[in-house]
Amino acid sequence: MRKAIVFGLGVILLWVSLVIVAEEVTLNVIAWPLAATEELQNDLDEFEQATGIKVNMLLLPEPVVHEKLGIEFATGAGEYDVVMLGFPTFMEFGEGGFIENLDPYVTFKAEPEWLSIDEFFPGYLDALRYEGKLYGLPMFVWGGILMYRQDILDDLGLAVPTTLDELEAAAKAVTEAYAPEMYGISERGVQGPFSTLSLCFAHSYGGEFFDKDYVPQLTSPEFVRGVSQYVRMLQESAPPGAANVDWPEVQTYLVEGKVAMAIEASDYVGRLVQSDVFPNMGYAQMPQADNPLGYMFVGGWAIPSSSRKRDEAWKFIQWSTSGAYQLANAGAITRTDFTNELVWHDPQFRTLHSAYVDTLLEAFGATHALYYPEIPEYMEVMLTYTEYVSAAIAGTYSAEEALQLANDAIYDIMEEAGYYE
Amino acid sequence: MIKGISSRLSLGLFLYPTLVLFVAAGVTPLGYAIYTSLHKMNLMKPALGMPFVGLANYVWVFTNSGAIDALLRTLQFVALSVVISFILGAAMALLLNGRFRGASLVRAILILPMVVTPVVTGMMFKFMLEPTFGPVSYYIGRLGLGPIDWLGNPNIAIYSVVAADVWQWTPLVFLILLAALQTLPQDVYEAASLDGASSRQLMRYLTLPLLRTPIVLALLLRLMDAMRAFDQIYSMTRGGPGSATEVASVFLYNSGFRVFRMGRTAAFAVLIFAVILVASYIFVKATAKRAAREGTA
């Protein structure tokens, strides 16, 4: 009798523990180490209290995340439930069927207290669509702005550049006056999928990456003009080693007072505010030629199709991108990457960032994320393009030669991908 | 032998599981790489399947200018890195082979670079060689020279990454050769000295032949390491400027893990493996023949 009771209690205990384990849902999230995600990591308890869903968040640099996700999606391992992607890779993974189309989620499973699709900056939301389907919700946005040392420009009697020619001239003037202690400008020259400012220069002069049949047009006079100016400017007015410069180096040069100007992502402002140069910094819309530069970046959350917790993942990405959550975290001086327009009109936020809030808001509104090749083969095409531009900056080729070589290589890529059948 | 179990059964119990593990962990991935290299495989386009394409991927490797340049650049990197690290390592081993005060401490300091993670080595060199605020540029500037664009000048960058590799792996050569030197029989040296042999003759007719096997070992290890060098180069230059330091490993990484073209990547990797295998075989065979001829095997 005693044995039967003990056995029965054991069965009940086992059943209860299984139920408890089954009820506890844990989401695995992978993202990049940014101010937005590092802050989010500290607030995961809040989401768990609201939903009962635990979250494990892993932060890794973008190239590592991209590499891991490529293998993860190809194998269908289902290790991650929420992933952070940069806007070009939404096309890559969306076309492959690796991430969920969120339109049905928005229509049928929206949490009204969290999701207000109309409050996201339209240009950035559109950047997360491919063939009209929405594949992500924007987690952070960066607009392109011109950051400059007002004191240096004043010393030399230079106006804030509004055209690309004025930018080049101002950079040259600063370099001639101050090098090697300070140079005129720094921009990204390294090979990489996000070293896209040269593309913006080309677009500003009317150059297009592809024609309507996806034949590359990198050798058009407009495209060559834009890229040539970009290459020349970095060769003549940037610190030595421009061909190896990525965004950390541009940021370091600005913060250390080694350069007077940079066109870069608006989140740099959040880092500049803690530097010695901040009191002398000015912020303006990016100079342009015939068209706006349109330089921007948006990163967002996507739900892998291999995840077995897609509904829970959907709850997480709504909550972490909600207006309420963003407003609650808008007090940090270092954060200027909020995706919800409400934040940018909040009086406290505007007061905190009064020196540049309207400049950034205008930059977000002026963005049209259409200068980049909107194709799933973006990564391969951009790696090829930027390799040749980097070689041009290093002096291995002229800009014209580099663009001819890039054009031929990209044509081969597109032909192999079946665009010309 | 365990009582009651035959030697054959013992062999089966203890050796075969190890062989199975070796095949599973070592040979199977190689086999799958060869299989993949014969197919077209793009991880991001599963709908296209994995069609058999025969040797098309190998043809691509030999006709793609980027791949050919990466191979040639790898040969340049390997030749420079192996030769320089060997000469420096051998010189250090010969110089520090004796007994002197502080010998252990000096030797321990000299092998420190080997324990640094290659990525950290790359980042360290990148910082030191930064032309605007790196310490190397600072001291060169004090001498009235520079700034020198160590990593951004396509004519210099390859030598900069070689320098980082040599700094990190010369201690390996030093360790191997020092250990070998310290185990050389002293009686033959005494006998040769009594017969009037000069130090140069001792080196040429005794030391080098006796060190043949460790020398081959050091060179082979350096060759294999240099062919696979990735971490330092990627963290220093990412293969740039342009493609000036894009060796085979960096090219493979971009092809396989940035663009996910696995068929081509596998073909290139198999070719690199074949090159290392053939070079190692030729090297060892030639050395063994010579050793047999001289009676020093």
| Span of the ends, CA to CA of chain A | 80 Å
Order of helix and strand elements from N to C terminus of chain B: HHHHHHHHHHHHHH
What is the CATH architecture term of the largest domain in chain A?
3-Layer(aba) Sandwich
Q: Which residue ranges of chain B are poorly predicted, with pLDDT under 50 across at least 5 consecutive positions? A: none
CATH superfamily of the largest domain in chain A: Periplasmic binding protein-like II
Q: What is the helical fraction of chain A, as a range of percent?
A: 40-55%
The multimeric state of the shown protein is heterodimer
CATH class assignment of chain B:
Mainly Alpha
Helix content of chain B: over 70%
Number of domains of chain B: 1
Summed up, the helix count of chain B is 14
CATH superfamily of chain B: MetI-like
Query: What is the correct CATH architecture of chain B?
Result: Orthogonal Bundle
Largest sheet of chain B: none
CATH class call of the largest domain in chain A: Alpha Beta
Kindly name the structural category of chain B. mainly alpha
- For the secondary structure, the number of strands of chain A is 10
Class from helix and strand fractions of chain A = alpha/beta
Q: Count helical runs of chain A.
A: 20
Proportion of residues in extended strands of chain B: under 5%
Mean pLDDT of chain B: 89
